[in-house]
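REQUEST FORM: STRUCTURE PREDICTION
Request ID: SP-0412
Submitted by: Lab K.M.
Chain count: 1
Length (residues): 512
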Amino acid sequence: MYRILIVDDERDERNVIRFLLNKYNFQLEIDEASNGKEALSQLETQPVDILFTDVKMPFVDGIELATRARELYPNLHIIFFSGHDDFYYAKKAISLRAVEYILKPVKPVEFQNTISTVLQNIKRKEKEHELREANSEFLKTHVLYRLINKTPIDLLKNEFPNMNFDFLNHYSSVMLMQFEDPFFDRLPKEEDTFFFYNQIKKMIPNYPCEFINLNPFQILLLFGKTDSNTLHKEIAIKIQKRVYLEYGINCYISVSNEYLSPSELPEIYDELEQNLEDRFFYSDTYIYPIDASTKESIEYLEQDEHILQKIQSAIQLVDIVIFKQNMKLLFQKYRAKQGLSHIYVRYFFSKLLQSLCQELPHYNKELINKKMESIFSCRHFSEIETILVHVQDEVIEKLEKKEQSPKHVIHLVQQYITEHYGEDLSLNLLAQKVYLSPSYLSEIFIKETGCGINKYIKNLRMENAKDLLNNTNMKITDICKQLGYHNLSYFVRSFREHFGSSPEKYRQMKKQ
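STATUS: Completed
RESULT:
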């Protein structure tokens, strides 16, 4: 919405203008000032689009006000209104590029036409400005694209003699983002390229950058000077993580060193692409090039993946002891490790954080993102450990509640049955596995599942029998043994009761 400032030392005159603006439904934010001095004070803190001012006023008259306002805002639209039909004032108004000089008393129709014309001019100039900016950005992108593709700068300057090429000197490092699939095709309908770029800029507000959409698989980011190449990699990690969290797609980012001249860009781009060729060897690594410490980190990753799997398994099995042991092992390992890439440490523990948060429903995407950002902002490993210990304690609390829950006991029994349905199973055996009496286990199993344990075992065996009959050529006798039945007749009778036909007839019907 546009803003208008009405300046007149007569309150009634200001009220008339306000009344007319409202009467003709002009969508404007209206400010008022009782003299030129007060108006100047307001203009210094709050810009306006239209200055509607009387000519003769105390302290600072309308001409002086307009002169100083024009210095503050060169594109300001000025309208004078006065009770003096004086050539001197009209001449001054023309010299200040006033839109109109309206005589008092204000005629409503004249006023309406003037304001309508001013608003149309404002909108027209805004569109012209946007078009110039868009053309300018398009040319910049075009020049950069040509430069990266090895067009000499001198040739580009000859092609665009009126263009200022100084913008090329604003950049001193670049990053190449690469996707396995066309990225922008994956964006939701309500989002577009500019929305994505703005999201990235908001994430790294202290490091302005520009973007070039090279092709459906590649985006080039151009940065000004930063403190170090390490900082570049930290920025790249933030971007890679955010893209994955927001869009569920992995991107690979190749980071350049700082360069001195724009003429180096073609060679740098080739290096960035070459760095990304290493993806073939390091499928779980997203930031390139890989230095010696990062390669050491990859070896660590292979070792740590096993520990991470143990932690995930302990959570699933509600095994608090194993969970604590492996968490402690990780913390001890990284407290004692010197010289390991801190980038890897942040990456690994952010991965661990995500794994733990799956057990905590109140950790939504926004909260996880904040925790991840905290990890990448930590200056010492002890700070990362503090974050993870807090989440670990929440997981332990959740597991302790699960451990005491009948649902957990039933889950363990069901899991054991699923893994051992081909063996001899009895209520007594299953009760021993979960340290309960047979009668209590039978009672809570029926309560939680709606059927008894023997029926549950039979149903599972019958479903597996059906699957084997449909998808294998195993003999009926072999299927019987594999399912844990020692008596073929009993198996056949059980199958007929469950499916309405013998196993042999069932197989024949399915083949027809």
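NOTES: Residues 108-148 form the longest helix (41 residues).
Reviewed by: T.R.
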